[in-house]
């Protein structure tokens, strides 16, 4: 049943080259991004973990005791430890070896590595089933999605889970044809489980795909059937890896596993603006993941993905249309379609908690990019571009043309990735007109650091709105904010107040008006003309003229 | 052959379509950015408005998301009442600084001028005259909390304001009446509410204490044609639509003249009370809030004595509750 091309050394060189180049770009651009809200939580947890890792080397018996584990792992217990442990290792390496130019990069680097590995994997999988040109296109199309580029910088779990989900799907796909891959399915699934709960849906996707090909095989009259050995492997090795990499579960395992599951099944609802409405309780319109994908991914890539789906429609045929004697295969496109649609549909369910951000279905995008690779091939082959003039460059030129919108958008999106919208939405101002979410996590504060430093040359205090104290402290340690400019706990005692513009944050805007007696911000951070942050100055602070009118 | 030719042309058409999409995205991207008004355009438009601004003017932004930009240019001209109006009274002209063809009004403006992407428009509106604004006079009121053992006066105090933050509700001002230090939400003072539509409303915070009324009394208020009362509950509380109603009773010289019953979901709404027929020039006006259950009743109201109703061109306010 092998219908995959064996990868050659050249393929891995291309994939690795892509990955390394991407990581280098991420490293080179990370200083533009102030630490985001969620990163600061994971950094705090990683520091706790680092302390535990150090204790593990010095006194292993004490370290694995409940007291030590609870002390280190109780904070942010709602997320598994795998990536936070990798952040911790990276930070320890920074402390002892000084590998990175600043502390935030030490925490972010493991996430960047998974972004690089994901490009390699996307290329490798693509090159296993399609022309290298298309596989390369797929990997680059994924890399050049503005929100993917933003999330690839972060010490978070979203790009890592996209990598481990894709890796698990790849190992499963390989294991169907080669049993030597079976243990790797369990291992990869375990690492996915140990990264983020997006992984929970994988067995379901694989089972649908597996039943599809088994039905195929039965109707075709094949005597040799695909083995389901991958499933018990996943269900045994996966949880073992999750528990093994998450010391929090080493004590009161069942109770804590149940609490973990309950936390995410009954997750709080974020307030999320979509088409002019601030949603704060379910149901979120089912169109959200699809419209947000339309508005944040290059339209050219989306069109190519649709073309790819159409081009490969024969591989997507329903199994009961298979006839006796038909050849059967891995039905790779069925698997890709499942991996692409399941995350989108999970968010679209009316009972799903309100998340909203594209990061919650970002695991779909490597597969979207792979279908775009097929679409590129379809456009090139069916239009016989290579045949027209007997040269290969027109097809390469076409591929480059199709990547350019994503490249231009990604370049322009930095460092405002979460605020960026594609031209189909009218760009950033068009999305503001439509009432689309403008930002979250208070991530845009990083773009104000120079202004704040210049505004408070002798130091002072800033009320930092949606930015956390941990994120602010990291900006101190990274040298983005002078140490004598501290985060204030109260607007009234601060020199400056930041307001991150989201509709439900209007409340904070109005609080600043009353606190300072003025509605006039001294500065408005804008992106393509759209306000992201208003800054108010405390008119009662010595050295400032009173602007209060009321 | 014909079939092959047809397929080839279809494939070529798809190729052209995809290439066209790429070109569209590449061209649209810089065009969108080029259409963003420059700082110079905003500055010129703002200077134009500033030179003609009068105290009874209002300044708005179109689309509304541009409001922080407009306030950063002209916010020093705006009082909290002008930026967060409880009702449209007291305005003679509306200035609009608009971009991207957006506007807040359908009528033709009395004046229009374009500043390279920022369009200034002005309308003359004839709203009611405000004779007395209760919010602006809160410091002159007397506040008390009724209880079984008799009313307890709330003292006007300069105290630590709230720290601020998402979900904290309207800002506690530094100067306010404090009724019960053990119930820090039981204060009365002027603030700005985020109403159910997320709009700002300059108003008097008067959180009910329960069945025992919180009373705010304004002595010697000049009376005009009507008493216009609006009220609402903080967005974060009202949007849940699960809490008990708030009752605001209005007394004029010990006579009950109006009752506003605010239910979750009503949004910023109110009642108009005719005062012209009372044949009084001045009176004492008292506002009392109660609620069957005061939990999360972050109630805030505005009121003013108005006269000289003329056509009001501003957006109509929804009226709820029963005036007597």
Written account of the structure:
The complex is a heterodimer of chains A (550) and B (324). By secondary structure, chain A is mostly helical. Chain A has two domains: 9-378, no CATH class; 443-537, no CATH class. Chain A has 23 helices and seven strands. In chain A, α7 crosses α17. Chain B has two domains: 39-127, no CATH class; 130-323, Jelly Rolls (Sandwich), CATH 2.60.120. Chain B contains five helices and 18 strands. Chain B has helices spanning 2-34, 39-52, 67-74, 80-83, 235-238; strands spanning 57-62, 93-98, 111-115, 118-124, 129-133, 142-145, 152-158, 175-178, 187-194, 200-206, 214-222, 226-233, 246-252, 255-262, 269-274, 282-290, 299-307, 322-323. In chain B, strands 5, 6, 7, 8, 9, 10, 11, 12, 13, 14, 15, 16, 17 and 18 form a 14-stranded antiparallel beta sheet that branches. Chain B has a four-stranded mixed beta sheet with strand order 1-2-4-3, covered by helices on one side. In chain B, a hairpin with a 5-residue loop joins β9 and β10 (200-206). Mean pLDDT of chain B is 92; it is low at 311-324. At the A-B interface, α15, α17, α19, α20 and α23 of A face α1, α3, α4 and β9 of B.
């Amino acid at each position: 049943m092998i219908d995959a091309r064996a990868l050659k050394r050249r393929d891995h060189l291309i994939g690795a080259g892509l990955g390394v180049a991407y990581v280098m770009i991420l490293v080179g651009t990370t200083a533009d991004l102030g630490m985001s809200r969620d990163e600061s939580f994971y950094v705090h947890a990683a520091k706790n973990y680092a302390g535990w890792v150090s204790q593990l080397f010095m006194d292993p018996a004490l370290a694995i005791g409940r007291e030590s584990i609870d002390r280190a792992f109780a904070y942010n217990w709602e997320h598994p430890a795998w990536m936070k442990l990798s952040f911790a290792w990276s930070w320890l390496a920074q402390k002892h070896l000084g590998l990175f130019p600043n502390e935030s990069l030490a925490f972010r680097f493991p996430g960047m590595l998974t972004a690089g590995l994901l490009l390699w994997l996307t290329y490798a999988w693509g090159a296993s089933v399609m022309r290298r040109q298309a596989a390369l296109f797929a990997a680059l199309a994924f890399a050049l999605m503005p929100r993917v580029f933003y999330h690839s910088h972060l010490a978070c779990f979203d790009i890592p889970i996209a990598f481990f989900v894709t890796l698990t799907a790849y190992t499963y796909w390989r294991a169907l044809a080669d049993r030597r891959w079976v243990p790797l399915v369990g291992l990869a699934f375990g690492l996915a489980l140990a990264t983020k709960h997006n992984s929970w849906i994988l067995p379901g996707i694989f089972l649908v795909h597996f039943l599809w090909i088994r039905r195929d095989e039965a109707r075709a009259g094949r005597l040799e059937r695909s083995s389901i050995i991958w499933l018990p492997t996943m269900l045994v090795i996966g949880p073992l890896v999750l528990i093994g990499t998450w010391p929090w579960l080493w004590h009161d395992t069942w109770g804590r596993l149940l609490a973990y599951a309950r936390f995410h099944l009954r997750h709080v609802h974020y307030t999320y603006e979509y088409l002019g409405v601030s949603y704060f309780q379910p149901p979120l319109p089912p169109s959200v993941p699809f419209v947000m994908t339309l508005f944040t991914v290059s339209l050219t890539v989306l069109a190519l993905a649709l073309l790819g789906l159409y081009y490969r429609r024969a591989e997507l045929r329903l199994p009961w249309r298979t006839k006796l004697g038909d050849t059967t295969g891995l039905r790779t496109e069925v698997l890709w379609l499942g991996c692409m649609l399941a995350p989108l549909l999970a968010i679209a369910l009316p009972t799903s908690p309100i998340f909203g951000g594209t990061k919650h279905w970002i695991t779909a995008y490597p597969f979207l990019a792979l279908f775009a690779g097929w679409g590129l091939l379809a456009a090139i082959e069916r239009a016989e571009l290579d045949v027209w003039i007997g040269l290969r460059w027109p097809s390469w030129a076409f591929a480059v043309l199709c990547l350019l919108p994503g490249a231009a958008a990604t370049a322009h999106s930095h460092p405002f990735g979460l605020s960026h919208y594609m031209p189909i939405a009218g760009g950033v101002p068009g999305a503001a007109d439509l009432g689309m979410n403008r930002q979250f996590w208070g991530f845009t504060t990083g773009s104000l650091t120079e202004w704040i430093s210049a505004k408070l040359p002798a130091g002072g205090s800033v009320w930092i709105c949606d930015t956390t104290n941990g994120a602010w402290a990291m900006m101190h340690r990274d040298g983005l904010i002078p140490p004598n400019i501290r985060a204030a706990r109260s607007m009234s005692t601060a020199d400056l107040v930041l307001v991150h513009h989201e509709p439900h944050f209007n409340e904070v805007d109005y609080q600043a008006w009353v606190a300072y007696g003025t509605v006039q911000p001294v500065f408005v951070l804008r992106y393509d003309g759209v306000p992201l942050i208003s800054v108010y100055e405390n008119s009662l602070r010595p050295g400032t003229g009173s602007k209060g009118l009321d | 052959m014909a079939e092959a030719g047809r397929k080839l042309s279809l494939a070529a058409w798809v190729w052209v379509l995809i290439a066209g999409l790429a070109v569209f995205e590449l061209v649209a991207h810089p065009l969108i950015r080029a259409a963003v008004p420059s700082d110079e355009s905003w500055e010129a438009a703002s200077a134009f408005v500033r030179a003609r601004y009068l105290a009874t003017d209002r300044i708005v932004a179109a689309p509304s998301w541009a409001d922080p930009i407009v306030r950063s240019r002209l916010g020093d001209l705006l009082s909290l009442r002008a930026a967060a109006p409880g009702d449209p009274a007291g305005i003679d002209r509306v200035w609009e600084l608009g971009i991207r063809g957006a506007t807040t009004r359908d009528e033709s403006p009395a004046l229009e001028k374009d500043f390279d992407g920022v369009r200034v428009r002005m309308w003359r509106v004839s709203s009611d005259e405000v004779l007395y604004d209760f919010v602006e006079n809160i410091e002159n009121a007397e506040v008390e909390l009724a209880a079984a053992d008799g009313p307890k006066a709330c003292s006007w105090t300069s105290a630590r304001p709230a720290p601020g933050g998402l979900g904290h509700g309207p800002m506690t001002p530094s100067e306010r009446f404090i009724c019960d230090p053990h119930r820090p939400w039981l204060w009365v003072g002027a603030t700005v509410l985020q109403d159910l539509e997320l709009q700002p409303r300059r108003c008097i915070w008067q959180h009910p204490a329960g069945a025992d009324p919180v009373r705010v009394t304004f002595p010697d208020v000049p009376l005009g044609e009507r008493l216009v009362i609006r009220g609402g509950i903080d967005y974060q509380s009202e949007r849940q639509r699960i809490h008990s109603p708030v009752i605001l009773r209005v007394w004029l010289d010990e006579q009950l003249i109006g009752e506003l019953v605010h239910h979750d979901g009503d949004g910023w709404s109110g009642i108009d009370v005719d005062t012209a027929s009372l044949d009084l020039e001045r009176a004492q006006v008292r506002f009392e809030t109660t609620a069957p259950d005061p939990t999360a009743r972050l109630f805030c109201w505005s009121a003013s004595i108005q006269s000289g109703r003329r056509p009001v061109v501003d957006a109509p306010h929804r009226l709820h509750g029963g005036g007597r």
